[in-house]
Amino acid sequence: MDWQALALTLKLATVTTAILLAVAVPLAAWLVLGRGRWLAAVEALAALPLVLPPTVLGFFLLVLLGPRTAFGRGITALLGHPLAFSFSGLVVGSVIYSFPFAVQPLVAGFAAVEPGIVDAARMLGASQFRVLTTMLIPLARRSLIAAAVLSFLHTMGEFGVVLMLGGDIPGATRTLSIVLYNQVENFDYAAANRTAAILLASSAIALAAIYLGGRPRGGRRA
Amino acid sequence: MLELALDARRGSFHLQVECRFAADWTVIFGPSGSGKTTLLRLLGGLDTPPRRGQDRARILLEDRLVTDSAAGIAIKPGPRVWQRRTTLVSQQPALFPHLGVAANVAYGLPWLGGDAEQKEAVDAALEVVGAGSLANRRPRDLSGGEAQRVALARALAPRPRLLLLDEPFSALDGAASDALLIRLRSWVEQHNVQTVLATHDATDALALAAEVALLHEGRLAALGPAAEVLAAERQRLLQRLS
């Protein structure tokens, strides 16, 4: 068992989920509460990684963050090392790749909060921030959990972006998916089985947490 | 004193009203779909026409310009001094389901410097609407009428300058509604709060003997004392009773 890869995968998923929630919660609230012609365009842009092949996304990021672009050179000068083939680069790729999995459940959850409740809070002087923290987040708690778990799992299982952007550097960019790929390539099916079982079990446990944790006692409509 | 000039479209509906509400109590009377809710939402600042749109709104509350779409002025909704100093009670109580009754009523209160002061303000507001015993209940345990009382207490607690009521007693029976109206009227007079009540029930309007604005298909058909504006409605009610 490659414990280093497991630890790295968990670290990547945790950091990615934290960043995603910090960005996606205010963005989803803005998409639901705001008005203007740009909202639809922003929502479409946020959903783009859903339909973009991971290898294509990984390739674009590799080029963007590499020495061929001014942006990549700027980042390298700023950090002292290139983002590609580093853990930080993987985080950037993962955040973009899992973005729709955080934003979409939150938009659906926030939009399901009764508009009259949001209006009542606004009429009592609540700012957008207070509406978000005291109404939308507590009332769409289940969507928040779903967004966090889906982002975490999606990051844990990602492969294309990781391979393209991070390569296969032990301790820096080698995640469980890469380990599984290597094990299959080497015909080490027993080890591959164990790695796949860990990924499967973590997904099953997390999904059960979503469906059981947010379920009201006494049934869905209680 | 409330001065308004509104020109707003909602699909095929067109609200066009220009008038001045000078009385402490104004009743906006009109059938469903006559534009009462649209008017109250514009007054409350929940809807503000965009600067470069077809719609126009200009609202002065006690000589303070709170909405002027042409100039891009739209003071935020809310009861505080830097907000519109306005609260609204809608037909649906829209209580916050995850908060208790006391927390619902306290939501619009500024930080008064201590829990005791806040509790006092909450209890006083609940007492006005005859819901003093409900402070520790959850919204899901309330009847429709109780929920409307709590929603009213929530709007009274922050002491607004303008109180907007959109058919707020629809879940109360006649006697309970009349009793609440009397208590509310006395509170409003005591605290010098201008009130605009939208209703399609002529008995509410006549009982208050207030200034009545008669709204018909988005236009102001008449404005004046209840006895004059609602003379025909009064006659109709009397005929039904006899």
Key features?
A: MetI-like fold, disordered C terminus, B: 242 residues, alpha/beta, Rossmann fold, 2 domains, six-stranded mixed sheet, five-stranded antiparallel sheet, 8 helices, 26% strand
How is the topology of this model organized?
The complex is a heterodimer of chains A (222) and B (242).
Chain A: H1 3-33, H2 38-51, H3 54-65, H4 70-79, H5 87-111, H6 115-123, H7 128-139, H8 141-157, H9 160-166, H10 176-185, H11 189-213
Chain B: E1 2-10, E2 13-21, E3 25-29, H1 36-44, E4 56-61, E5 64-68, E6 73-74, E7 86-89, H2 101-106, H3 115-128, H4 144-156, E8 162-166, H5 174-190, E9 194-199, H6 202-208, E10 211-216, E11 219-225, H7 226-229, H8 231-241
Parallel strand pairs in B: 3-9, 3-10, 7-8, 8-9
Antiparallel strand pairs in B: 1-2, 1-4, 4-5, 5-6, 10-11
Helix pairs in contact in B: 3-4
| Share in β-strands of chain A | under 5%
CA radius of gyration of chain B is 18 Å
Secondary structure class of chain A reads: mainly alpha
In the sheet with the most strands of chain B, the strands line up as 7-8-9-3-10-11
Walk me through what this model shows.
Chain A has 222 residues and is mostly helical. Chain A has helices spanning 3-33, 38-51, 54-65, 70-79, 87-111, 115-123, 128-139, 141-157, 160-166, 176-185, 189-213. The model of chain A is unreliable at 218-222 (pLDDT under 50). Helix content of chain A is 77%, strand content 0%. Chain B folds into two domains: 1-77 and 162-242, P-loop containing nucleotide triphosphate hydrolases (Rossmann fold); 86-159, no CATH class. Chain B contains eight helices and eleven strands. Chain B has helices at residues 36-44, 101-106, 115-128, 144-156, 174-190, 202-208, 226-229, 231-241; strands at residues 2-10, 13-21, 25-29, 56-61, 64-68, 73-74, 86-89, 162-166, 194-199, 211-216, 219-225. In chain B, the strands form two sheets. A six-stranded mixed sheet of chain B has the order 7-8-9-3-10-11, sandwiched between helices. In chain B, helix 3 crosses helix 4. The chains are: A mainly alpha (222), B alpha/beta (242). The interface between A and B is medium-sized, with 15 and 24 residues.
